[in-house]
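sorry to bug you again but im stuck and you know this stuff better than me. what follows is a protein written twice so to speak, once as letters and once as structure tokens for the fold. mainly i need to know what kind of three dimensional shape the backbone takes. anything you notice is useful, everything is just below:
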Amino acid sequence: MARAIVSCVWDYLTSFLPEGIQQEARLIIGVDEEVKKLRSNLEAIESVLLDAEERQVKEGNVKRWLDQLKCTSYDIDKVLDEWNYDKLKQEIEGVPSKKIKEVNEKLDVIAKQKDMYDFKVSRSVEKSKRVQSTSFVDVSEICGRVDDKSILVRKLYENSEQHLPIISIIGMGGIGKTTLAQFAYNDNEVINSFDHKMWVCVSEPFDEYRIAKAIIEALKGSTSDLVEFQSLLQHVRESIVGKKFLLILDDVWNEDYKKWEPLYHCLKNGLHGSKVLITTRKESVARMMGSIDIINVKELPEEECWLLFKRLAFFGMSQEECQNFEEIGRQILSKCKGLPLAVKTIGSLLRFKKHREQWQNILDSELWKLEELEKDIFRPLLLSYNDLPSMIKQCFIYCAVFPKDYKIDKDYLIKLWMAHGYLKGYENKVMEIVGQEYFDYLASRSFFQEFKKDGDNNIIGCKMHDLVHDFAQFLSKNECISIEVDGLKDPITNSSYHEQVCHLMVTIHREDSFPDSIFSLRRIRSFLYNFEGSSYSLAPNILPKLFGELTCLKALTIGRKYGSVIEDIPPKEIGRLIHLRYLNLKGLKMRKLPEELCGLYNLQTLDISDCKNLEELPQGIEKLINLRHLENYGVRSLRYMPIGIQRLTNLRSLRWFVVSGGGGTDNKACSLEGLKYLNLFGELCIKKLGNVSNVDEARRSELKNQKNLLHLYMDFKKDEGERTNEDDEVLLEILQPPLNLEKLQIRNYRGNTILPNWMMSLTKLKDLELMHCINCKHLPPLEKLPSLEDLFIDKMSSLKRVSNEFLGIESDGTSSSFIFFPKLKYLTFECMDEWEEWDYEITRKGEEEDITIMPSLVSLQIHNCPKLKALPNHLVQNTTLKKYIGGCPLLRYHR
């Protein structure tokens, strides 16, 4: 990890001090010489770090030398960042000279000490380079443990004489206990056997308060008004009375029956047939909890190990290559000792090694023999970790800041990596794309698992196996930690790692329980409030001290989507966070952001999503010259965009652009034309398009030139007064989106037709939503959109009939096509009050072929269409189609 930090500082130093800035530095007496000395020391140290990091596992003195180096590297990074901030303000002073001299003296000592260890000299400072692209193998699809699975499922759904039996899965770390429990949890036979299922990751310590809250949240969704443990137990009891439930407690370590007893007696109030399933590494834990049904998970049988190993390690190899590598592959596999996690890790590593010598090096590695490592599984993990590029090592270790079983949002993680300078662009690739590649790189090597995917099958989130998380913490040496605050004890003061903490995530379980010791963590670079796992918001009174004391922060999360009580950001203190790159204020209740926030020139991401009371952004926003992401989705009170927004030429994400309705904002508001100065990526929602009074302003927005925009939402709502139908029709025609658009939503549109000239040119459009288009009497010929997969139509209250025009058929009923909507998968109609008929009259000139409509359709949803009488024949006859129909009393075909 030290190597990654030094590399990060080196990149910062070389990019921050190009020739022009060096010229300015020479004007400050002594700075130029100090910078040269800094470069020299860093280069000399970096050349031995590869050897040092490999030896630190066995040699304590090398480990201590690396820890010294890490601390000093953070100090250097801080000094350079301060100097860069002064440069941005055009106020370079003599103070940085003294600070560089101070950190140089520390680095000088470290550089001289390195000669004591006789390190091997390797390559010079590692430059940012292209990461090898990979195809992803989802190991969750790999089968195994057939007998264990069938035994467990049978135990869960069959009747038992015992009231609330506890079934235990026992086995060593990395053996596959959680995977087995997940299989049973998602088994259809098990699902149908219980009224409720709950999954709680327990880990250490056994926090009965948190477990009770997790159970309630799984049953009811919220526990914010419950404080005392007895109140929680009472709520659990009330929630499960008369209900047959399955509770899975994953990764239990507690051996104290007194901590388990109150919860167990409370759970007995469930219906007979309810069951508890635990996973644990200790049989003594299972016995303490009164478990008599025990499944001992043994090492994976050799042939099952081999199947898993082969699928990963031999991926992409020819049959001949597989045969050539089989013997050495089986020798390496034997060192994994039947642990599935070890097999996955080594298999994923070897997948990228195509030469026999590389496989031999893995087989002969000294790491297999190390006794100093805390767990057997760490040896294969360390082999895989050592193979990572240094910047990706840093990205992996940073993940130790999340608690165990945390659902990591991919976009959040990449923006945090970016904030700390771990993502360096190369080959014209921007940081966000580099972050995607780093994430995929770690996923392909089995450092991530349990992937969450969006509708397009793109990975948007993941978890870490608890042993991989342990490994990241082992490497982090308490530099990246997560703590849980319950008011009973101070987790920082009572620890031995106070001075080492640089990145911290805090989960709060009790109101007004924020530990003062956090304010003393002066090295801290990340303060992340766990808005997903916390029961309480951060208290407003801690913010002045939090901002005022932790002035080295580069990433700060204090927001919470629901339940935040913070109404104001302290202006003076927020201005002190000059190093800040990532700021998350999601869900806060403030009406206005302080102008002082605009002095954070380094800021890359500002997340104010769901700040529903926020009325305006600061006028000085143009000063945020490094801002790349303004996440303002759900800011419903926002009246306009400040005029300075159009000067943020680095801006890539702007979720909502609000068109001003006047009201005294004319001189302060950015017009729709301002969009042409931005280069936006991904998604944009233009709100209150009805406020546009000059169509030339819309034309000058040049929306069609936003080539990187994939999702566009057009909301034609107006602040005051009515618009004519023709106004909206003209405006829609002018607002031509880019032709590579994949998703389009048109909302609150008052035109009579939705058929601008550009619409059928959207050949890549997959998803279309038409909502609250109350004057439209006919659907446009949407069949002419060749890539359309998802169509959602809502509150089109003037539409009475869906017929040939929907399929793009001419008025005489003839068609040149015989397959309509070839790719449409999902079709939804909602709240169509006047819709009565849905039928077609189609003929084909001179041909006898069958006509096919919507051959790919898998889901049809129709809700609250009270006058609709029948479905067309092609839907009635489709027996495999899933139909979800409600609020349609006249409709005869419900399935």
In short: The chain has 27 helices and 29 strands. Residues 2-117 form one domain.
